[in-house]
């Protein structure tokens, strides 16, 4: 037994994927295409996508929300885990990146589940609240600009149902959050949301060393 998470070497991580990853070919092709892009690091890992899909299945989620879509890998993972009449609202501002996403969503047969809204995320979230969607979402994934995390989180809390789950990505931020010498705006924003979540009695939480850090919060 060990009292802390094991360190994943490249060899151990490869073994982890070898014995546990069940990535559909369409997702693998999307991941590989994105890997050739300049901003490839913005995409979540295959193991994280599979973990999020498992969460969606365990919850029996039907109504989901994503803030920050990029080329659509995380959205595809969630959409494939939803029932045929499930819904995923995705927020992004890039026509270029989401055009790639649309191609793969169509190929995977899940485009009918996905409502892509191209606008600043806060506008979309406020529109959803104005449409009467407060308290209706089962699962929310936040993976967008880090300085916006606090505002996205507050809107997500309004939109998610009691017992619903919010997942925030990059909360370990390549270890920079633990280095006091790093004080750039993104790092400080992640530190601030981590501190806020630790004391937020509106939720229960767990920060997991999955990918670049994945914090799960359940609305009480």
Protein traits:
alpha/beta; 43% helix; seven-stranded mixed beta sheet; globular; 220 residues; 20% strand
Q: What's the topology here?
A:
Blueprint: H1 10-20, H2 25-35, H3 46-59, E1 63-67, H4 73-81, E2 87-92, H5 95-108, E3 114-118, H6 121-130, E4 137-142, H7 149-159, E5 160-169, H8 185-198, E6 203-208, E7 214-219
Helix pairs in contact: 3-4, 4-5, 6-7
Description:
The protein has 220 residues and is of the alpha/beta class. The protein has eight helices and seven strands, in the order H-H-H-E-H-E-H-E-H-E-H-E-H-E-E. A seven-stranded mixed β-sheet has the order 3-2-1-4-5-7-6, with helices on both faces. Strand 2 (87-92), helix 5 and strand 3 form a beta-alpha-beta unit. Helix 6 packs parallel to helix 7 (149-159).
Question: What's this, in brief?
Answer:
The protein is an alpha/beta fold and 220 residues long. 43% of the residues lie in helices and 20% in strands. 39% of the residues are buried.
Structural class: alpha/beta
Question: What is the mean pLDDT?
Answer: 97
The Rg value, from CA coordinates, equals 17 Å
Order of helices and strands: HHHEHEHEHEHEHEE
Straight-line N-to-C gap: 32 Å
Widest sheet: strand ordering: 3-2-1-4-5-7-6
Major β-sheet, in short? 7 strands, mixed
Structure annotation, total helices: 8
Helix coverage percent of residues?
40-55%
- Proportion of residues in extended strands: 15-25%
Number of strands: 7
What ranges have pLDDT less than 50 throughout 5 or more consecutive residues?
Answer: none
Principal-axes geometry comes out as globular
């Amino acid at each position: 037994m060990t009292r802390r998470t094991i360190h994943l070497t490249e060899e151990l991580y490869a073994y982890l994927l070898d014995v546990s990853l069940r990535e559909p070919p369409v997702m693998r092709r999307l991941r590989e295409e994105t890997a050739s892009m300049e901003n490839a690091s913005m995409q979540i890992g295959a193991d994280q996508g599979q973990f999020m899909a498992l969460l969606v299945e365990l919850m029996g989620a039907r109504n989901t929300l994503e803030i920050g879509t990029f080329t659509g890998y995380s959205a595809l993972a969630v959409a494939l885990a939803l029932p045929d009449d499930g819904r995923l609202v995705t927020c992004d501002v890039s026509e270029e990146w989401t055009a790639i996403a649309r191609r793969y969503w169509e190929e995977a047969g899940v485009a009918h589940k996905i409502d892509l809204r191209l606008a600043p995320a806060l506008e979309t979230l406020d529109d959803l609240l104005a449409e009467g969607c407060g308290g209706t979402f089962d699962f929310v994934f936040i993976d967008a600009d880090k300085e916006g995390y606090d505002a996205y989180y507050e809107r997500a809390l309004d939109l998610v149902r009691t017992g619903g789950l919010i997942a925030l990505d990059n909360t370990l931020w390549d270890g920079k959050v633990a280095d006091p010498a790093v004080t750039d705006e993104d790092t400080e924003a992640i530190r601030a949301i981590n501190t806020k979540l630790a004391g937020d009695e509106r939720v229960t939480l767990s920060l997991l060393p999955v990918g670049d850090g994945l914090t799960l919060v359940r609305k009480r």
